[in-house]
User: What shape does this take?
Amino acid sequence: MKDRRVLKTEKAIRETFLSLLKDTNLNQITVTEISRRTDLGRGTFYLHYRDIYDLYDHIENELYRELEQIFDSAYPSIEPQNLMNLAEGITKYICENRDVFLTFIRLEGSEKTISKLKGFFSKIILQENVKLSGAVQSNAEYDAVEAIFTVSGVVGVLEEWLNNGIALPQEQVASMLHRILVKLNT
Assistant: This one.
C-alpha cells in the first residue's frame, strides 16, 4: 500500500495532466508545466514517472486494470445475469470516469487508443472462450471474428454515448447493451 502522501502527489500530478490534456496536445505538455501547476518540484514528478508518456501510460493502464476487474467479476460473461452485471459495471465505470475517457478518445491519434481498447477486450473475451471450452478450440478463427465484432460494436456504442451522440442515462445504455449481447449469445 502506498503512503498517503505519495497517493496525494500522484493524484495531483494526474489531475493536472488530465486538465492540460483537455486543451493541449500530449506532445506539447511538459513536466515543467505540470510541476508549476501542482506546485511540486520537477524532481518530485520524476520520482513517480519517467516522463509525460509514462504518466499517460500509467493512467491508461490503470483504466485497463479496473475494466479487467469489472470483466473478471462478471465471469463467465455468457450467462445473462453476468452479462447484465458486466454492462452495468462498464457503463457505470465509464460514467464515473467520463472526463478521462473523453480526454483520451478526443486526443490527436485517438484511433490508437480506441484500437488498443478493442484489442484489450477482444483478448479478454478470447481468453474466456478458451477457459470455458477447454484448451481445444474447435473454431479459433470464428471466435476471434466474433470477439472483434462484439467488442467493436460495444466500444462504438460507448464512444458514441460518451460523445453525446446517444443521450441516454447510464442504466438505459447498460440495459440496451445487455439485450444486444444476450441476443448475440443465443
